[in-house]
Structure formats: C-alpha cells, structure tokens
UniProtKB/TrEMBL annotation:
This is alcohol dehydrogenase. The keyword Transcription does not apply. SUPFAM superfamilies: GroES-like, NAD(P)-binding Rossmann-fold domains. Residues 10-325 form the Enoyl reductase (ER) domain. The lineage of its organism: Bacteria, Pseudomonadati, Thermodesulfobacteriota, Desulfuromonadia, Geobacterales. Its cofactor is Zn(2+). It comes from Oryzomonas rubra. The keyword Acetylation does not apply.
Length: 327
C-alpha cells in the first residue's frame, strides 16, 4: 500500500510503499476511502504534540470499508462502511473509563498519533472505537464529521444552552458547529483573523448572524464562546465578549500560552474550560444528530500524495471548510 509517513517531527511526510497491515485480535482492516485533515495533524507533524509513535502514518478522520476482521470482532462484517475517530483505544479500567470519562484515560491511544492513521490506502483500527456512518453522506463529506464534527459537538454541549454563541477560528469544526447551533435556535457570532473578509462571509453563509475580526466586540454580550483557533491570546478576547455567567470553551488539543489578563474580565462568574478528546457516546449522539440538521460539510479534496501541500494549506488558512485526503 501507499502511505504518507512521518519519520521525524518538523519534517515533510514521505510517500512510501508498505505492506498492508494485518488486523490483530479485536481490530478491523479498512480500505481507506477518505481521511480528513485536522489541525491536530498539524500539531503532530509540527512537533507541538510531543509523544508520537515514530515512524508514524498520521490521520484520524478516517472513512473506510471493512476488508477483514481480526479474531473476536463482533458487530461488523466485510463491506461495512465505518468511521475511525481520534480516540483509538482506552484501558477500560481506570476511574475515568469507569465513570463515563474515557476521553481522559491516562492510557488512551490516539489514531494518527500513537496508532497509525488514515494517510494511507489501508489501516487497522480497534473495532470497539469505530462508528457505523449515517447513510446519505458521501465518503469525503463524512470524513470531517469524525473529528471536526465530534469535538465541535462536545464543545457545543459543554458551552451550555445559551442563546448567543461566539465561535473563534472559523474552520472545519466551526462550520459544522454553526449549522448545529443555528438548527437549535441559537444566534452564532463568527470571529476570524482580522481582515479575513472571505472567512467572515463563509461564517455568514453557514448561518452566523454576525461575523468580524477576532478582537472585535460583538454587538451584544455573548452567553458562551468556543475557541477553535490555537491562539492563547483569544482567551482574554473571548472573556471580554461574554457577559456575566458566560463560559469560554477552549476546543483544541493544543494552544499557545494564554497571556495574563485582568481579573475583572473573569469576575462575574465567567469561566474557562478546556475540551479533551471525545467519548464514544459523543460519536454516537452526533452521528445520529448530523442527518437531522442536516449538517453539510464543505470540503477541499487532495490526493493522498499531496498530504504535505494539504497540511500547508491548512496551516496558512487557505482551506474553506475542511480538507480531505482521497487515496
């Protein structure tokens, strides 16, 4: 099979010919149909997440067709279409796992980080952490649901039921969350890089009632804000935008340092919370919800061998919606 391989962090991925992996007990062998490109992939490749398996095949928004089953697999058969998310395995025994918080498991394994991912023609995955995908979504349209959609959904749920929602960083997750939030009857306020008029127009196209630069004041105090951009300086900006009792949700796995800020923008029972990974329950709930909205994903397609170009486009903010690799 062909695979885009990371030999070291900070370097370009290399196109390699590798043997097709064989599924171990409990695993599925998947023929990859599409794999979304996520900012987390950038954090892995650029070295901001520091504990990858090396060499590594990145990619954790995988849509694939079951080719073979490892010993003991139940609930799947060859020909099934499944999705593989970031959370690739947990211990199942710790306090986090046994209290419905498996996303915090200290022994978790992550797809495209500690386990080879979907920047390849084939991959294997733990069947317990794979999802059947809703009908009606082509492979490339379904791929962004598996991280941008799932972490966006978890962030939205943690943000609470407030009516006025700000979203900072209008990329793959934001364009999905906006559709869900407006379907729920909320007002969405989109924040982009200053001067990014194309991104602001995209936010309004997805349903935002207002769009502006990251440090602009919204016309009304927000009930909650979700930050998807990995920029710590947006936390004080979001705190200033939310009203008393408002919550600021940091929805990324990595963020630059948060600068100091005056206590008065936190006072008034405002709060800051991070979102870590996802649970299988998040996946089941969101993949059931997405067709009801229905969520429409905007995708920019790249052939597998152009993974480096795709990552560069994401890094530079040149992708509208979500990037997807197609073998």
């Amino acid at each position: 099979m062909r695979a885009m391989v990371m030999e070291r962090q900070g370097g370009a991925l290399e196109l390699r010919e590798l043997p097709i992996p064989q599924p171990s007990a409990g695993e599925l062998l998947l023929k990859v149909a599409a794999c979304g490109i996520c900012r987390t992939d950038l954090h892995v490749v650029d070295g901001e997440l520091t504990e990858p398996k090396l060499p590594l095949i990145p990619g954790h928004q995988i849509v694939g067709v079951v080719e073979a089953l490892g010993e003991g697999v139940a609930g799947f058969r060859p020909g099934d279409r499944v999705g593989v998310p970031w959370l690739g395995g947990t211990c199942g025994e710790c306090d986090y796992c046994t209290s419905g918080r498996e996303n915090l498991c200290d022994r978790a394994l992550f797809t495209g980080y500690q386990k080879n991912g979907g920047f390849a023609d084939y991959c294997t995955a733990d069947s317990r952490f794979c999802f059947p995908l809703p009908a009606g979504y082509p492979d490339t349209q379904a791929a962004p649901l598996l991280c941008a959609g799932l972490i966006g959904y978890r962030s939205l749920r943690i943000a609470g039921p407030g009516k006025r929602l700000g979203i900072y960083g209008f990329g793959a997750a934001a364009h999905i969350v906006t559709q869900v939030a407006t379907w729920q009857g909320r007002e969405v306020y989109g924040f982009t890089r200053p001067g990014d008029t194309a991104g602001q127009a995209f936010a309004r196209e997805m349903g935002a009632c207002w769009a502006g630069g990251s440090f602009d004041a919204p016309p009304l105090p927000l009930d909650a804000a979700i930050i998807f951009a990995p920029a710590g300086e947006l936390v004080p900006a979001a705190l200033r935008a939310v009203g008393k009792g408002g919550i600021v949700v940091c929805g990324g796995i990595h963020m630059s340092d948060i600068p100091s800020f005056p206590y008065d923008i936190l006072w008034g029972e405002r709060s800051i919370v991070s979102v870590a990974n996802l649970t299988r329950r998040d996946g089941e709930e969101f993949l059931k919800l997405a067709p009801q909205v229905p969520v429409r994903t905007e995708v920019h397609l790249f052939p597998l061998e152009q993974a480096n170009e795709a990552l560069a486009a994401l890094r530079e903010g040149r992708i509208r919606g979500a990037g997807v690799l197609v073998p």
